[in-house]
Each structure stands twice: as structure tokens, then as C-alpha cells.
Amino acid sequence: MDDPTAPFEFLGLTFDWGTILSTLLAMAIVVIVSIVLTRKPSLRPGKRQNVIEYLLDFTNGIVGGQLPKKQARQFGLYAFTLFFFIVVSNEMGLLLQLQGTDGVTYIKSPTANPIVTMTLAIMSLMVAHGMGVQQLGFKGYLKNMLLTPYSWMLPLNIIEQLANFLTLSLRLFGNIFAGEMLLTLVANSLAWPGHLNGFWTVLALPIEMVWQGFSLFIGGIQAYVFVILTGVFIAQLSGNE
């Protein structure tokens, strides 16, 4: 199934308006919600402050079980931001999709695009490698990454680093893209032409509702898994296994 795009070029690179607008909207939602929830913090937190504190405690709990206290504290804010952004991005296309008259979907889940998930994977792996250098020094970091547990495993360790990138990015993309694609297929069946239209509508409506609820759940799980894997890679590259 072809998905029309709205490409444009800038400095010799090709960009897509749908991906850019969706990503900017997800970023805006994260920033606005964070500002609203953290306004006028107090020692006796209200409902809004309780929500943001719960989210922070949740992401801190994810990294706290994988990393030493100092590293967990350094990684905590990034883990919270990463989790929040991925959750919003995953769920956005399920709850809101805007399509132009040209057939291009301008607002959708940014994480249904492999470029976005690969970018997030590169960012997270850069954080992991940077913390590895900080923890072990450059020589110790290279030895731990490439020559552990045995020097003859160098080729396998190099392949593992590439696999980490693919695992982190393609798992997220595949789950969100598949969810949106199946919802689109079910929605199209609601407009099945001919005398069977009523039958397909009755059949497809509950299927779409169930699958949308399941996709919302999967979107949250995938954000959780992404943060966990990032923490695992930090632990590996810092020699904390």
C-alpha cells in the first residue's frame, strides 16, 4: 500500500513534511504538558505535580535497576524525556491523523517512520558510548566494547554494535508501522463498496476498536522497552554487567 509523501529539498537533502510536522507536534506536546504539570511546584503536591512525579519515579525506576546510582542520576532526565516523547509519538497516529487534499497524511505517528526511530537509536547509542568513555576512559572503553571477554571475539563484537542499532530502531518502527497499517486496512473495510457494506461495517467496527486499544498498549510497551534497552547498552559499554 503506497503512502503518498510531501517531500522537499534543503541543502541537497530530501525531507518529508509529514514526518517533520508530526515530530514537531510530538515535541510541542511533550514540552507543553511538562510545563503545565510542573507549574508552581510545592511540598504538598497537587494532582498535576503527582502525575509528573509518578512519571519521573517510573523512568528512574527503570534505569535504577540497571545502572549504578551515579550513572542512573546522569541518565535519569534523558530517560524521562525519551520515554515521554516516544509514548506521545507512538500514540499520536492512533488518536489523531490529518490528511491533506493531496492524499498526504501530514499528522501521524513519527515513530512509524524508520528515519525517526533510527535517529532516536543513534542518539541513545551516542549517550551510551559517551557514558562508557566517561566511566572507563577511552582505552578502557575500546577494550571493554571490542575485546571483551576475549580478543578473538573482535569481529563478533563489531557485529553486535551494529545489531544493537538495528534492534533499537527497527523494533520500534516495525511495531508502530504495523499497528497503523492494520488500523488503516480495517478502516478501509468500513467503506467496502456494494451491498455488503453494512455487513463489513458491523464486522470491522469492533475489530478496529479492539485493535486500537491493543495498539495503544503496544505503544506504551515499546517506549518502555526502548528505554530499558538504552539502559542495558549503557551498562554494557560502561562495564557494569
Automatic annotation (TrEMBL):
Keywords: ATP synthesis, Cell membrane, CF(0), Hydrogen ion transport, Hydrolase, Ion transport, Membrane, Transmembrane, Transmembrane helix, Transport. It comes from the Bacteria. InterPro entries: ATP_syn_F0_a_bact/chloroplast, ATP_synth_F0_asu, ATP_synth_F0_asu_AS, F0_ATP_A_sf. One of its GO terms (molecular function) is hydrolase activity. Coiled coil: none annotated. It is a multi-pass membrane protein. PROSITE patterns: ATPASE_A. PANTHER family: ATP SYNTHASE SUBUNIT A, CHLOROPLASTIC. Key component of the proton channel; it plays a direct role in the translocation of protons across the membrane. F-type ATPases have 2 components, CF(1) - the catalytic core - and CF(0) - the membrane proton channel. CF(1) has five subunits: alpha(3), beta(3), gamma(1), delta(1), epsilon(1). CF(0) has three main subunits: a(1), b(2) and c(9-12). The alpha and beta chains form an alternating ring which encloses part of the gamma chain. CF(1) is attached to CF(0) by a central stalk formed by the gamma and epsilon chains, while a peripheral stalk is formed by the delta and b chains. Belongs to the ATPase A chain family. This is ATP synthase subunit a. It comes from Leuconostoc citreum (strain KM20). The lineage of its organism: Bacteria, Bacillati, Bacillota, Bacilli, Lactobacillales.
